Amino acid sequence: MTEAAAIARSSGPVTQARLVVDFQRLGITPGMTLLVHASLSRIGWVCGGAPAVIWSLLQAVGPEGTIVMPAQSSELSDPSGWCDPPVPESWWETIRATMPPYDPRLTPTRGMGQIAETFRTWPGVQRSTHPQVSFTALGPLATDILARQPLEDPFGTASPLAVLADRDAHVLMIGTGWESCTALHLAERLAEPDGPTQEDGTAIMVDGERRWVRFHTLCTRPERFLPAGAALDGHVMLRHGHVGSAPSRLFPLGEAIRQIASVWTSFRP
């Protein structure tokens, strides 16, 4: 969405003070730990842009709260699997040989939106070590949440998502759909701990040297996310509201994941 379109859909400037009120009305309280998915354009015309949204989130949770966001960098993967867009097969080996290695400080996010990318560079923000599906976090629990994220199982029981579930975190979705709800990957892992895998590759630093490494990662089935989310939308645990003009949701991560995992487990062949 262009800035002109954001202005057209807004009844007025969305200020930082209004955002804080909207977060509070949705149910966000001081001390909360939030996994945030956010679309800046869906909020409307925000006075101050992405930094204003981040400041408002930090104000809403206070100094005892922790903000977490996905910081995925999907381009650090094997080019043979690229489809949006694909590249010629004749390029693959050159890409594998020259792709810059993952750097938590410098590697940008891809497809995460302006808020997540701005948060990545925010003073004090930490980032997990996974080269493709990292998380960023700021707050008292940040180090604990980001401490582990195995290369081959980045969303499983030893991942930041599992720590968030254990710490009674909530998921905040601001103008985003269930198809992009990263937390649902943990439900996949709980429902299918021995599910199918696929081969991938990435560039990382190993013992001080840049290396292209191959690994197997668990397959995901994002086509299940929409119906699972639709079921959650009618549950009492989930709170609906608006942040600016953006339809938004707030729900407890652990409880939601347990319910979805239970349903998916019951439908396994």
TrEMBL record:
Coiled coil: none annotated. GO terms for molecular function: aminoglycoside 3-N-acetyltransferase activity. Transmembrane segments: none annotated. Keywords: Acyltransferase, Antibiotic resistance, Transferase. Signal peptide: none annotated. It catalyses: a 2-deoxystreptamine antibiotic + acetyl-CoA = an N(3)-acetyl-2-deoxystreptamine antibiotic + CoA + H(+). One of its GO terms (biological process) is response to antibiotic. Its EC number is 2.3.1.-. Pfam families: Antibiotic_NAT. Belongs to the antibiotic N-acetyltransferase family. This is Aminoglycoside N(3)-acetyltransferase.
